[in-house]
Amino acid sequence: MARQKKTVITCAITGGIHTPTMSDALPYTPDDLATQAIAASEAGAAILHCHARKAENGFISIDPKDFSTYLPRIKQATDAVINISTGGSVLNTIDERIAPALAHSPEMCSMNMGSMNFSFHPLAKRYDEFKFDWEKDYIKNSDGYIFRNTFADIENAATQLAPHKIKFEHECYDVGHLYNLKFCMDIGLFKAPIFIQFIFGILGGIGSDVDNLIFMKRTADRLFGDDYRWSVLGAGNAQMSLGTTATQMGGNVRVGLEDSLFISRGKLAENNAQQVAKIRRIIEDLGCEVATPDEAREMLDLKGGDQVGF
């Protein structure tokens, strides 16, 4: 496919893996979520990938009311594309996970393209004490989590969200997920142009090696031709290096405290905007331009910020 002219930066603000003990910078109150999201947009993120948390203890929330405490503030202060996760929590059903998107009708949602082991249990050994009592067991027990996204789940989510004209960030954690996506396109669930997020480095998914990126890209080229746009999420210490490689291959990039708590090896990021500013500087220093929200909308064929429900 032809190389695009500008690079879209997505920022994933908080996610469902990291817990408050791991970094004081991880936002979980409505004020912190809104403030960090707005700052990330101002730093150059065209798309803001959003989860919600419980304000009192940082626990992961898929309650639409918890999204409503901060999404309108982002909408009022920025022109960024809002992308609501339908992954949310690996402990909930697909109907529960898509409830925030149904309630708020964003321009974009994430859509996980296959079931998988999804674990971050090694992180439990790094901390002797935790800020909140839910954190340790949540992390430790993730070695038994299965992130369920069956074909029936995917069709259910796509069908329920179809009236909202939402486009998807198709999250592909392994090469088989690309074939799942192709099957779903063939039966009419999704229409081009699709937006694929290649995800590397999650325990249970494909590793964060450049060879794997090249293989995923070649596979997607063969399956989707000119009908897709793509981005790279490198988890943990692969965030900046693999993301930079993707931008030089003509792709887009995702950063944010959902995916990595660090700004450089061994140094915690101060906030989401710091990561956005770093990848933007790298992109521009290498001779590329960063896309605005409206340019991202055009590239991904989005419905527009005036048609959301918040």
Automatic annotation (TrEMBL):
Gene3D superfamilies for the chain: Aldolase class I
Record key words, sorted: Metal-binding, Transferase, Zinc
Statement: the UniProt record of this protein carries the keyword Transferase: yes
Gene Ontology MF term list: 3-keto-5-aminohexanoate cleavage activity; metal ion binding
Cofactor: Zn(2+)
Source organism, top-level taxon: Bacteria
Keyword Transit peptide attached: no
Pfam families assigned: BKACE
Protein name per UniProt: Uncharacterized conserved protein, DUF849 family
Organism for this UniProt entry: Cohaesibacter marisflavi
